[in-house]
Hints:
By secondary structure, the chain is mainly alpha-helical. It has helices at residues 22-34, 46-58, 60-68, 77-86, 95-98, and strands spanning 3-6, 9-12.
Amino acid sequence: MCQIKIGNGNCSEHGFIARLPENQKLAVKTCFETAGKAPRGKRYTKDWIDTCLLIRIKSPKLYRHLRSRELLPLSSPSTLSNYIRNMTVPMGFKPSYSKP
Length: 100
């Protein structure tokens, strides 16, 4: 369980963090899990990698800014490239798309 000291009291995951929206919980948990680890020792969840990919696709400049200032624990661009390279995308259209 994560313990955060804010002001005079502790806020546990069941209090302060539990009230956050799911995407913010994911960001906070990732921050705590990667804090103090060497860059090569960090491990990310699939949801966090997906979020990183979306940020980088929408704005590579923003991704570089967030990563260089360490505002979010974003994975390296080479890690994202490896994930993209290993994705399998089926060819053709999904049958459900052709139905009116």
